[in-house]
Amino acid sequence: MLAEARRRSRRAFIGLGLAGLAGLGGWNWLSSQPNESGIPRPLRKVLDANGRLSSAYFKETRLAPEFARSRARTPRVNGKVGLDQALDPAAWRLQVQGYGSGKVQEFTLADVQALPKIQMTTELKCIEGWSVVVHWAGARLSDFLARYPLATRSGQPADPLNPPADLAPYVGMRTPDGAYYVGLDMHSALHPQTLLCYEMNGQPLTPAHGAPLRLVTPLKYGIKHLKRIGTIAFADTRPKDYWAELGYDWDAGH
What we know:
This protein is α+β, with helices and mostly antiparallel strands. The chain has 2 domains: 1-32; 35-77 and 91-246, Sulfite Oxidase, Chain A, domain 2 (Alpha-Beta Complex). Helices cover 25% and strands 22% of the residues. It is built from 5 helices and 12 strands. The strands form 3 sheets. Strands 4-3-12-7-8 form a 5-stranded mixed beta sheet. β3 and β4 (104-107) form a beta hairpin. The protein is globular and about 80 Å long.
């Protein structure tokens, strides 16, 4: 029995050693590959494949589940990039660059609040694995772009049900200091649950949670829910995205 145990131990040791060498070889090969958007190209290809799958699964009619408002809780702050500057709510302005024109229009929070108020209680999912139900209130981004048709070259409203031929394919958003930034495909931006949000759980947003205006898009992970929107711009190619540059997939859908 002792001899058999020793024989099996030697076999296991050899097997583990070979597995370790294979893993080390694989890691050396992976780390020697050229980088693409901040990570080795093979990893980027896998993430891009995940993004294509998520994009194919996306539909305007597919809605994130909604919950009873009584289940709403305050989420973790979980990220302060782009929020270092002191906030002066009275001086804050949303700057939107028109697609193809380069002209910038400024909007106050009152301009956004004048649009139809949408309320929803959805699950905020973090890429780290935790989630929390939150009650949000704000204006649909689609309503904003219908009232202020800045996402088309012709000035036609961005109707999600009948999108104009010259509608921008992408939209990018940044914090006022430019430190945090996200990109969305236009289909996601015009989704009926994508909000320019100014209230959370029945109260105005706090500075730590993105006051005075943040993005909420519940079919995406929280890394896309940009806090304290400063600028919005439209693009023909995928805009830069903070976490995609650090190795996450650009689409970030679930």
